[in-house]
Amino acid sequence: MSTLDVDSLIDDPDTRVIVCCGSGGVGKTTTAASIAVRAAERGRATVVLTIDPARRLAQALGLAELGNVPRAVSVAGFEPKGSLSAMMLDMRRTFDDMVLAHAGPKRAEEVLANPFYRTISSSFSGTQEYMAMEKLGQLAADGTWDLIVVDTPPSRSALDFLDAPQRLSTALDGRMIKLLTAPARASGWGIRKVVSAGFGLFAKAVSTIVGGQLLADASAFVQAFDGMFGGFRERARRTYELLRSSGTAFVVVAAPEPDALREASYFVERLADEEMPLAGLVVNRTHPVLAELPAAKALGAAENLEAAGGAPLAAAVLRLHADRVALAQRERRLIARFTKAHPAVAIAHVPALAADVHDLAGLREIGDQLAGA
């Protein structure tokens, strides 16, 4: 089993994007923030983008809140050799900004006012992942930062943004979209008459299911959006290629628990299928043994003390140690099972801290553990 060298990763000037992915509740947001802080202190111009709606990242970085544009991190005692900015994805705002940037004023006004647009821009399946792709592409194109750290959503959907370009293209090339845009695209009275007749039958059938007003809003939205789709596809394609490039490194984050490591295996296999560059696995909140005393001997010593009627505190400590040894052995077995299935994956272990990370000092401590310091 090889060790994940986080410092070599962030010190390499060719590393431009680090994507942290993993299931929920494994410390992924904290890992991303810790990597970003460490990178900034080692001289990188760094921005961290979180897609997790939790506010922990802002609190740990000393910011009252994170917005949809990067904000410089300025905390007492934080004087990095490089720089650090942070932001949290607002998918509705990102969608609005994209429309304003890539549509003419009249068309943008029509799109932004459309009820169907207001629905999909905030709650439509896949919108968050596509907007994450869009924002990552914007940050990469900006040129202000030489390292972008991305914290992804806390579930398997963390990798759904890899599918966003293909899903978008499939949706836009689908039969319903073509029917919705057909009246606007048809040229010539005869063609329009035929298409309109076909669309009328389609609309009548669908409106009984989804409602006539919703269908009308959807049709108006797609027709107003027509002509912008190609640009969306192209930008998503470029961002997808960025994710596959040698300048990107994926870091999978897990806890030493069966479900989390199963999810980690899924991520590793999916990244391999997509030919995405995997840097390694971070196993958070491990419980290393603090003393070389076998569990059986610790329990035996505790029983002897209790039988002798003395030192109850010492007996309790010995029992706690035995429990810790059993937990550490269980975690080692689980990690060994992962390593057997994925022998080429480098691993970094981060021991559980006594308290939750809520400030810069905590992020630095996690960064030290990631680097094996």
Describe this structure in words.
It comes from Actinokineospora cianjurensis. One of its GO terms (molecular function) is ATP binding. By secondary structure, the protein is of the alpha/beta class. The chain folds into two domains: 6-102 and 128-173 and 236-289 and 331-370, Rossmann fold (3-Layer(aba) Sandwich); 295-330. The chain is built from 16 helices and eight strands. It has helices at residues 6-11, 28-41, 56-60, 91-102, 105-113, 115-123, 127-142, 164-172, 175-185, 189-210, 212-225, 229-244, 258-273, 295-308, 312-341, 360-370, and strands at residues 17-21, 45-50, 71-72, 83-88, 147-151, 248-254, 278-286, 347-351. An eight-stranded mixed beta sheet has the order 3-4-2-5-1-6-7-8, with helices on both faces. Helix 2 packs across helix 16 (360-370). The radius of gyration is 26 Å and the shape is elongated. The two termini are 19 Å apart.
N- and C-termini, Cα separation: 19 Å
User: CATH superfamily membership of the largest domain, which one?
Assistant: P-loop containing nucleotide triphosphate hydrolases
If strands are numbered along the chain, what order do they take across the biggest sheet? 3-4-2-5-1-6-7-8
What portion of residues belong to β-strands?
5-15%
CATH architecture of the largest domain: 3-Layer(aba) Sandwich
Q: Characterize the main sheet.
A: 8 strands, mixed
**What's the overall geometry?**
elongated
What structural class do you assign from the helix and strand content? alpha/beta
The chain-level mean pLDDT equals 81
**Low-pLDDT runs:** 183-211
Number of strands: 8
Tally of contiguous helical segments? 16
Radius of gyration from CA coordinates: 26 Å
Q: What is the CATH top level name of the largest domain? A: Alpha Beta
What letter string, H or E per element, gives the SSE order? HEHEHEEHHHHEHHHHHEHEHHEH
Assign the CATH topology of the largest domain. Rossmann fold
| Tally of structural domains | 2
Helix amount: 55-70%
Organism: Actinokineospora cianjurensis
Protein name: Arsenite efflux ATP-binding protein ArsA
Keywords: ATP-binding, Nucleotide-binding
InterPro entries: ArsA/GET3_ATPase-like, ATPase_ArsA/GET3, P-loop_NTPase
